[in-house]
Amino acid sequence: MSWRASSHAKYDCKNHLIWCPKRRRPLEDADVRAFVTDTFQAIAEEFDFQIEELAIEEDHIQVFLEFPPKYSVARVVGILKNISASRTFRQQATGVDSGRLFSKSFAPAANPPPLQPIALYSPPTSVSA
Prior knowledge:
Helix 1 (30-47) packs across helix 2. The chain is an alpha+beta fold. Helices cover 29% and strands 20% of the residues.
């Protein structure tokens, strides 16, 4: 674990976030996925986020990142989704449906191992007789 420091705090705030494209429309175009990946890296650099791992699949996006405590999780998601969607629409006018790129919801996971299948996060349920 590596601690980062700001003027008044030391922190290690890591979050694993998952969200889907709007109406589960797939991001089939590899160029769009590559552009979104580059955009996420640029946004992270601009806002002092540190992306540990990033996976942009056809049906969802997973990002494991660290960010300063001055940002809430919802604010970080809003920054990533809003800026990347607007830049993607500007750059890739064809191949991306107009309107929103991402759905309004997201799923934060509390310190899971990065980018493992989602099914592994929930413990198996057993029925006691």
